[in-house]
Write a structure and sequence with these properties.
About 30% of the residues lie in helices and about 20% in strands. It is α+β, with helices and mostly antiparallel strands. It binds zinc ion.
Length: about 400
């Protein structure tokens, strides 16, 4: 469905750029609690990032594994959790300037990225789904295409995305929402990555050639029985998910090889189920693996309107190339130990992965770790953001 967004007018005023009309006060207030959750150390509010340590995995097994057969047992460095915003300080500074001072970035590239968020906030933040129960019962393919078309793609600099060609169907250009005129901004392609000698397989979705979206098969019950197709099994299914971790690690190594000139190699991947999303990030240089707390996708169970936190986290994540600021210094000693477990085949991960033309294999059972939640920490800059945002929220 076409967005109802209006072109925002930006003016130069007192040595900075700002939104011309302050007509979005209510929108800002609506988003404020979600913005605060990205930088708050308050246990009840926060959206966190927690480092993970791999205890055992089949990354270097003598019989190479596809993503659907990945084994990866992990534990969390639970006491070292930090707020989500700490890995995206550039993005958080842009959001802070906007929410606190109504200022937009001077830098043209940052401004283009930020306008994507402003247009989204100002436009239609929901998916048209006529039957309220359908939101919770979308099948994996439907969910991935709808979210890429209506959320992730809209927040990225270009709305192009690639979907696994195994999903292609007769009506290739059609979205799966209930707007019959809604067309896909992506195409079905070979999305295979990796190397048949190590972890490999097809990504479900790749946004703008830069960020994968994974719908772990275990997030959905067996769709072949025709009874509960697409129904989510349990809420925490994305936490410690081996398939999601493996795809993030392989994609991060590929990004490091493809873009050796980047300032850092912390690369995210979004995992989705019917009701929530989780962001997993891996730094293929420093061997640090991070997982976000689960974030509700929708504002409620039936409306098809995206939650404010999902919008902000998606914007930060799909634009990580501009908004992510490397592994926060407090995580650098929390190694995932992938380098240790994959030691025998590490050169393969570092030098011989490819995008496209890689074979894939069928699914099997996946193990996953459990996180005992601790209060997350917050850096000085995030505390400062939280303080100022709280002042706005509670202003009489
Ligand atoms: Zn649609």
């Amino acid at each position: 469905m076409a967005s109802k967004s209006k072109k925002l007018r930006i003016r130069y005023h007192n040595d900075h750029f700002e939104i011309e009309k302050e007509n979005n006060v209510q929108q800002k207030l609506d988003f404020l609690p979600s913005m605060i959750s990205l930088c708050s150390s308050n246990y009840l509010l926060q959206t966190t990032l927690t480092p993970m340590k791999i205890l055992n995995c089949n990354a270097a097994a003598s019989v190479p594994s596809s993503f659907s057969k990945v084994f990866c047992d992990i534990e969390y460095y639970g006491k070292d959790s930090f707020v989500f915003g700490d890995a995206f300080r550039t993005g958080m500074d842009i959001l802070g300037d906007y929410f606190i001072r109504n200022i937009v970035p001077k830098n043209r590239q940052f401004l283009s990225v930020f306008e994507k968020l402003l247009d989204f906030i100002d436009g239609d933040r929901s998916v048209k789904i006529s039957d309220p129960h359908r939101v919770q019962n979308l099948r994996d393919k439907e969910l991935a295409i709808i979210l890429s078309n209506h959320l992730f793609g809209k927040l990225a600099l270009t709305s192009y995305f690639a979907a696994d060609k195994a999903w292609s169907c007769e009506d290739e250009g059609q979205c799966f929402c209930d707007d019959e005129n809604c067309e896909m901004t992506g195409v079905y392609l070979d999305t295979s990555i990796g190397n048949v000698e190590v972890w490999h397989g097809c990504m479900d979705i790749v946004i703008n050639n830069e960020m994968p979206v994974v719908v772990p098969w275990e997030a959905f019950s067996d769709s072949s029985n025709g009874n509960n197709g697409g129904e989510m099994k349990e809420e925490s299914v994305l936490e410690g998910c081996a398939q999601l971790i493996a795809e993030t690690i392989v994609f991060s190594f590929l990004q490091r090889k493809s873009h050796p000139d980047r300032n850092h190699f912390l690369t995210p991947c979004i995992g989705i189920s019917n009701s929530e999303m989780v962001v997993v990030l891996y730094d293929a240089k420093n061997d640090v693996l991070l997982e976000s707390s689960p974030i509700p996708l929708f504002k409620d169970s039936f409306s098809g309107e995206f939650s404010y936190t999902a919008v902000l986290v998606s914007w930060l994540t799909v634009n990580y190339k501009y908004l992510c600021t490397a592994v926060p210094e407090h995580f650098t000693n929390d190694k995932s130990e992938f380098f240790v477990h994959a030691k025998n085949k590490l050169p393969m991960y570092q030098e011989n992965l490819r995008f496209g033309g890689v074979l894939k294999n069928p699914a099997t059972n996946l193990p996953r770790g459990k996180l005992k939640r601790h209060k997350a920490n917050s850096s000085t800059s995030m505390v400062e953001h939280e303080k100022k945002l709280m002042e706005i929220l509670w202003r009489p």
